[in-house]
Amino acid sequence: MELPGATPIDHDRCSNLLWKGIFIEAGWDPNMPHSGDRLFWCHQTQNCLGPDGRAVDDYECNETRRCYRPL
Asked: Domain of 15?
């Protein structure tokens, strides 16, 4: 299920990647810019570092990491 207010993330990112935008069920308002708050965390570790000790974000959490899990 895709929520209209969710922040889009590329499909090749880790399934453990979480961010605040996926919990917002509000429609996107074209008059308001995206927040870009960049608050990401890992579902597996429940903090801003992945199981490999590296930072979690929408760019780094990809198939090049050993902890990567496909969507």
From this structure: 10-23+36-71
- Please tell me the pTM assigned to this model: 0.70
- Could you tell me if residue 43 is inside a domain? yes
Say if residues 41 and 14 touch (Cβ distance below 8 Å).
no
Largest CA distance in the chain: 40
**Matching residue, tokens 């570092």:** 49
Q: How many folded domains does the chain comprise?
A: 1
Q: Helix, strand or coil for residue 42?
A: strand
Q: What is the pLDDT of residues 17-26, one digit of tens each?
A: 998 777 777 7
Scanning the chain, the segments in alpha helix (DSSP H) are none
